[in-house]
């Protein structure tokens, strides 16, 4: 900070001083936010309270930059969850690592439009190199193309757009030219517990939910390979265009589909396999956990996130497509005022739905460089061990059941007596509310297989084993309060 302040003080011209003072003030607010201890991990203000805090009439006269910044901080901070903290286990959210945040500040300050390599040479170059590093760290085919998107939802959208184009092209239909009406039917096989975002990506592409061939899941929420083989044999005519959607990392259990069985079956039918690996694909970056995602490398496209296990700030996801030509056919935007691209150059917009966009390659490059492949492997291994530690601590308490086999970083927990339907739901929801009220750590809930669960995702770089122990104690204490109230009523 002192060095930064000196650098700002040294700025010569008046505009520079003003800009410098503003950016330094923003940095101060950010540092205060990131370093101040907080009593509770959940936001203190609800959505409604936050709307009330922001909700003024549109000002006619503008305010000074300093006033605006102060107002923003004052109104926003109460409504911020501690998603960058060590005991935040809600949804699946990385910690927005300071190295990524710093790179992202520069990204915003540099203001590059990352559409193409002429408009933004450095931004395009950072993506080119970060793309290569991603393929290396995730152990995916080196010839693949990579698009830097907002997250895994858009990554699946792009991967499945490439899939749709290619399987139809093989059937003699050019979907990019002819559209979907009148096209040969594409069969899409998907696990019945695939992530909701993949179903959304499919319906954006014209594959409505009712048209999908769903495959039954096992107790961990991933496809039963036998059920997959049966559905393929029964419902997909030989030669029909085929897309198979698998997952690496079920959102509640962390389990991964049996790719070593599913991929060869799909390939034997000429199918395209797309993997939703929003966080689970990162198991491949860790030698100890890579076997979980064995066979994934045989697929055709992969969706994953930077803002989960790589800890980039929001938003950042990656779509990886083995057939770079199919990827480009699905996404390229061409116009006479946009520069041509030679085989030695790469235009970021040829791999994503947007033309103008943020330079996500800078933060990705910075974090891959900061962690190194060994650092990522160690972080994934640590989170998986911490998830097991948390699960073991909770399972030892009467009335708490860990429902999943903790193979990765996700823990699904149920409260109350086993088989206790509606009562167990009520107790589980009450335990989640009690934990959030206490605030030592944060966990959310979900309805899984007809029953409410507490979901815990260990994925923040800053979580220590002590944080896990403290969190287990807090969850147990919340549960005891709920159980004793229930017993008394
Ligand atoms: C398994 C899985 N797939 C897809 C997604 C969607 O990712 P995003 O929110 O980055 O679009 C998530 C988000 O948690 C997820 O866990």
From TrEMBL:
GO MF, one annotated term: pyridoxal phosphate binding
GO biological process, one term: carboxylic acid metabolic process
The UniProt record lists the keyword Lyase: yes
Keyword Transmembrane: no
Keyword terms, alphabetized: Aminotransferase, Decarboxylase, Lyase, Pyridoxal phosphate, Transferase
PTM-bearing positions, type N6-(pyridoxal phosphate)lysine: 308
Record-linked InterPro entries: Aromatic_deC (IPR010977), PyrdxlP-dep_de-COase (IPR002129), PyrdxlP-dep_Trfase (IPR015424), PyrdxlP-dep_Trfase_major (IPR015421), PyrdxlP-dep_Trfase_small (IPR015422), Pyridoxal-P_BS (IPR021115)
Cofactor(s) the record lists: pyridoxal 5'-phosphate
Pfam families according to UniProt: Pyridoxal_deC
Transmembrane segments: none
SUPFAM superfamilies per the UniProt record, alphabetical: PLP-dependent transferases (SSF53383)
Family named by the database record: Belongs to the group II decarboxylase family.
Protein name (record): Aspartate aminotransferase family protein
Organism listed in the record: Ancylobacter dichloromethanicus
